[in-house]
Amino acid sequence: KQEVTQIPAALSVPEGENLVLNCSFTDSAIYNLQWFRQDPGKGLTSLLLIQSSQREQTSGRLNASLDKSSGRSTLYIAASQPGDSATYLCAAYSGGSNYKLTFGKGTLLTVNP
Amino acid sequence: SQTIHQWPATLVQPVGSPLSLECTVEGTSNPNLYWYRQAAGRGLQLLFYSVGIGQISSEVPQNLSASRPQDRQFILSSKKLLLSDSGFYLCAWSGTGVYEQYFGPGTRLTVT
Fold it and tell me: Could you count the other beta carbons within 10 Å of the beta carbon of residue B68?
């Protein structure tokens, strides 16, 4: 059974700082890993999808990496801004016809101006 | 472009009352559709998924049911709500054979 853990649960940084969010998963036989952003009371916004054959994906100031052998993914945010404040969730898809994503509980990021 | 809608946005219902939440997707055909629940302090839990009209699979035995009467419509229902049904309900879709999932704005359900 796949389990996804995100550490830390909360992170507070000053504006402009580069930061890394961590995601670990127990079953390395994943098909892909997806990073999401969730603002308070809102739905999830997909940020990046990394397929198992890839090691990283980039979108603007965001870079996500995937290391299946160690069971880890990281989301790197460059030059953080107050607008980046949100909860960041990672989710792993481990195959199967149910297309089930297993989610971590998220990291609450606060970027202080 | 594809969009996903959910309604209502918020709902307050008494225990024992029925429930109907609706999700529709625009701009795509034959999507995979999903219902998730997000409870306070817990991760997202997959409740139901559907790969086609009338095809519903349940992930967790519970007080809820789902239906897919049209290709791009997904409905979450209950005959009698429990207090434990309170939470944030999210609908999501993905393309056939594509694993990236896209989420709707959610419905906040409070059972009193």
Answer: 20
pLDDT at site A83: 97
Our CA-based measurement puts residue B80 at a distance from the nearest CA of chain A, in whole angstroms, of: 25
Burial of A53-80, coded b for 16+ CB within 10 Å and e otherwise, reads eeeebeeeebbbbbebeebbbbbebeeb
Only one residue has tokens 């059974």, namely A1
Please, what sign has the CA dihedral across residues B55, B60, B62, B64?
negative
pLDDT at B65: 95
- Contact A70/B at CB under 8 A: no
Cross-chain Cβ contact A32/B102 below 8 Å: no
What count of residues does chain B have? Answer: 112
